[in-house]
Prior knowledge:
By secondary structure, chain A is mainly α. Chain A is about 70% helix and about 0% strand. A two-stranded antiparallel ribbon of chain C has the order 1-2. The longest helix of chain C has 29 residues.
Amino acid sequence: MRRSRALWAGITAVVFAVIPLLTRDTFALRVVTEAMMWIGLAVAWDVLGGYTGYLNFGHGAFFGLGAYTTAVLMMRGHWPFALALAAGGVLAGAAAVVAGLPTLRLKGAYFAIATWALARAVQQLALVLEFTGGPDGMRLPPFLNPQFFYYLMWALVSVIFVVLWILLEHSAFGLKLQAIREDEEGAMALGLKPTTIKIQAFVLSTVPAGILGGVYAYWITFIDPASVLGDLVTDQSVVMAVFGGLGTLVGPAVGAVLIYAFKTFFWAYLSEYQVLYLIILGTVIALSVVFLPDGLIGLLTGRGRAEAPRSPEPADENPPELREAAP
Amino acid sequence: MRRVVAFTLCAVLGTSPAWAQADRNYFKVGVITSLSGDLATGGNVTKRGYDLWAKAVNEAGGIEVNGKRYPVKLYYADAQSEPSQGASGAERLATQQEVDFVLGPYSSGVTLAVAPVLEKYKIPMITGSAESPLIWRQKFAYTFGTIPPVNYTGSQPVGALAGLAPKPRTAIVLGSNDAFSKATAEAFKTAAEAHGIKVLKFNIVPSGQDLIPLLSAAKVLRPDVIAFGGHDEELINLVKALRQINYTPKALLMHYGVTEPAFVEALGKDAEEVFGASVWTPTLPTRGDLLWADARAYAEAAQKEYGVPADYTQAGCSAAGIAFQAAAARAGVTPPLDEGEKRALRDALEALDIETFYGRIDFADRGEFYHANTGLEALTVQIQGRRPVITAPAEFAEAPARYPTTPWNDRR
Amino acid sequence: MLWQLLPQAVLDGLLIGGVYITVALGFSLAFGVKHIIDFAVGEWIMLGAFLGYYLQGWTGLDPLLLLPVVFAVFTAVGYAIQPVIHRAVSGRRGNPVLMGLVFTFGLMLAIRGAGLTVFGFFSHSIPSVMSARSWFLEAGGLFVTVPAIRLVGFVYAIGITAVLHWVLRHTDFGLAVRALAQNRDAAGLMGINARRISSWVYGIHVGVSAMTGVVIGSIFSISAQMGGDYTILAFFVVVLAGMGYLAGVPWAAFLLGLVQSLFLVYGNPSYTLLAVFAILYLILLVSPRGLFAKGV
């Protein structure tokens, strides 16, 4: 089973790797590049949201932090892109440690809204600071090579996916996270250090977001507080992860691809109905929560997920029910 | 699940059509603007302007080049108020639809992300709306704009106010913290200081902020002028707030926004006597050779089509179409445009100097306003009798400015 | 000079806060009982505002007289929608908070899309006779201007809060709601029809929010895109108050109003929102369950 999963993952990676060789269509490349970015963002969000049960509604702030770090270092510090990108990832991780220490003490909805408030504060900060360009945003030198960004995104997202896969699915770390999700105090009684583990998960979730933000900045060539520090990144990552299936790696990836493909298809080929797409997307999201209890992944595997995530809060009204044993 | 990925992939790639390009007898025109998202209000106004132009051109048989007429077909890309989606849209229009030229975004941010992509494909773009001075400083070779930047237009009304009697001595200048509004507020402030009006307070405030505490505090200073840079609903909120605290400055100045029909519709008599800046009103004396003979003819066509009066954005967008029309005729290029013809079209745009229903279109070819339209006269307008009336400069003035402004409670 | 502005700044802060109370009240109630973070709260406000706008246009009545109609219509809407939300957050799902949130997020997108389609993109205003009035009070060198429509909004907010408080404390329905909020299973054992009560609670939430939309339309402007701003305010106030802790809502709303007002007058106005969010964040860190540590 595991071997075949690895095989499939490898095949998927190879398929993505050869796409640019098959098509000269730069728009298709751009679409797939962005789809991969969303895979990375949704999967990264799921590390904290799905595996650990802490709903980070400030995911976009770390994406924006990476974007702004890269932009500021390149434009004001004249750093090369690769270094600036790495710095963006490091800074996003460092910010997660600083913000995580106090914030991760909060539970449930309070954690969600505290991270959201933090993200809003960061956006306001970017709006009033001088070196971020304020509301005018920042322009980066255009480097419009679709293949470069495609392979960069492909490599980064593959690395993110593989690293998370090893850590979350094939090491004790993943089990620790789930232990915290299921019963934080119990985990502590077993000798785990929840604070340390939660911070590690937070960093693991935000570093990819920061790096992807840096790529985004260089790729799109223009960033401003509305586009990289707005609600879009967070909202979309959460919805993709939930739609696909929380607490898994494949689920959010599938959710990301499908939601992004739906949005893009509607947007590109049925543009006359631009507002309708909001209605349809909204309805699909709402209905998926009602009818797909475990996300798409639950539907595709034909069974409920064995380790469906539990909120840190007691679920108030669900009758206890039989769960399948973990494979 | 892999099957799903593969399927999606095929869907995305498979739908990229190979268009038969050889003998196309119509122009493909890309429209990149924000039809959804935060900027949808303005974006849809631009769409109306572009649509109206396309409709008028096609009713006339198309764009006339060397005695033959070529209709236009619009291809939309909704930028969703996101720069990245604008860039993506540009890529799609350039590579899949293979458009000949592009009518551009509503906002400056999206324009800044779209321009480099079109630059790469050497596709000329005219935005009928984006007016941040930042765009023109980038010196994009293929990007043009029919609306002058705010710092070009913002100083005119301040100068006009300074010339009224009794001369306003003090002002409070506020601006919302977005690119357009901040630039507007800064232009007002600079102009006020240049004209000897003392700026008592200059604040950039977060977008959407309830300003009543700030205005209450300002009221105590009894400023002669309150000048505000902001977007549609912010302007309405500001007037309502001043109304609520019952403070009537001698002049209340805003920018383009007051000429939008929604401003008068929402405020009724409270909109009266508010000053604004504009470059076009339905009553501006203009003459055009293409499509509409003058501003009035355009306004009538717009009223008939959409049931609301046209504002400067919509007019600027229709004028962007006319600029392409004129440039295509001069360059003698016929669809489909190859790279050389697109370059010729771009050169023709740069050399263009025409009179239209919108006024003169003359894109600057150097300097800080590079490729912005500097052929227009900045106008001071005031809402009088529920519509914007030009009060300055003198050669365009339709009526004298009502000044000092009638107190709120005495209006009808 | 500066201290002279203080009474006005405080008054403005309280009046701003007054509007925020009703923006957040229904949301807080719904969270207390159903544990739903309602992303659509701003959209209910938007829909209510537009119903008020059109009704005002058709009838010519003052929007404040139309409040009961708007309340009735949207209470019915909320009542009807609640079973679907219940399905979304219950059953086999692991994380009801997240599920409710994502469900209402979808609802929000759909309502906003529908709003843009039906109402168009432009801003409107709901005219009320009260928006043209104000009182100027002066005593001993101190002075304040009291805008009538804002005072109306304030009184409306206090009134709704008082009525809701009374209903919760002194009626059988209120008892049932409180029982439900405390312990669903026990409430069921006591013979309370949880489903029905939940529907009423969500109905009241939607009804109050929609009604507030009309008041907002009289004070500010309305547009199909307005919802997001008010959802943010509702989040803010409810979390500051302690989620689901109804009695904390007015104080949190006043605090938010006062912070904004004082910052605008005495601080650097550019930093107002930054300060607001930083304060929310810090308060959460110091007192994780809201100002009064009484959140659910």
